[in-house]
Amino acid sequence: MTGATGSASIALRGVHKSYGRNTALDGIELTVAEGEFFCLLGPSGAGKTTTLKTVAGLEEPDSGAVELDGRDMTGVEPYDRGVAMCFESYALYPHRSAYDNLASPLRSPKYRLPAAEARVKVHEIAELLGIKGLLERPVGALSNGQRQRVALGRVLVRPARAFLLDEPLSHLDAKLRQAMRAELKAIGDVRRTTTLYVTHDSVEALALGDRIGVISDGRIVQTGPREDIWHRPYDTFVARAFGRPLINLLPGTVTADGHFASAEGGFELPVDVPAAAGTAVQLGVRPRDITLGEEGGALELTGTVYVTEVLGRAVEVTVRLEGGRQLSLVAPRAAAAGLRVDDPVRLSVGLENLLLFEADRPERPGRRITP
Ligand SMILES: Nc1ncnc2c1ncn2[C@@H]1O[C@H](COP(=O)(O)OP(=O)(O)OP(=O)(O)O)[C@@H](O)[C@H]1O
Q1: ipTM of the complex
Q2: Is residue 319 in some structural domain?
Q3: To 10 degrees, what angle do helices 144-156 and 115-128 make?
Q4: Locate the ABC transporter domain: which residues (predicted)?
């Protein structure tokens, strides 16, 4: 496989991986199309890094297989897979300059470039990552965020069949991270090359991913374009993974005529719930989909203001509903300007913004009920 170039599709087929009694990957099924930018999102310990390592060949699956361009990689050495991986704990040469660290992949037999071409390439990448002024400095003398960009540059500087990036922006401050996100996707080599990008930051996943995969306990819960993940989450785990403040989940049951009745009294919603009467369900409403003081929505609620918190140009308002439950909403600053604690408020939500889920169970989060 040495010398293989061109972007490759990635597939994981039923990949299991355990460390002793600890299951890291529990039958991962995942495909990333050639040239796609795919974000894998999940909480700490979900199996994100292990997934990348099995694709890179740094870990062998206990069962199942990894394929690159449809070819089974079992037994193929990491070096021969032609993928480039950037770890969260990056391995750089601390005593050597940032330039040397960036140029070193271009001195390896497989990717060797003439010195002049290597210099152009290194400067190009350094410019894109905003580290051109640091090239002469030893990496050991750089900040964590600067070092992380050198590590990312080292991955992007040479051609690869796929980039495997493990939280590559985690050490940057919020402003720089946002700027780098935009830069990263615009880099020509990244646009052309299959990229599997791991993050626990849902904003990052939504900003970057052509498609997103949500992973929990070593399993893929859902994959899809961001619109699907946002509007049609598979279950309450996925719904909670995206959006801050968190989605509101109001408990209820299905009435005899198939409607939703709030468990805490207060309201009944005349939407048809495709579940048996008496079934415990939850109504999901995202804070940004709730309108303050308007009438005419499918769902209308009343309550009192509990807390308000300014979030830049918007305000997060926590409302205590009649039954006692709290609900978050995000309103434009103008709409929430005069609100004081204990003020009565009316809230409304359009039918298109209501999500219905089964109740959460100890063994699994409630699944979304169609549509
Ligand atoms: N070398 C190892 N030895 C033992 N257990 C491991 C090893 N590597 C990973 N694990 C375990 O496997 C599970 C998945 O770990 P992994 O690092 O893939 O998660 P992650 O989603 O990348 O988490 P994080 O966001 O914290 O990096 C965890 O329970 C972890 O403790």
Answers
A1: 0.96
A2: yes
A3: 130
A4: 10-242
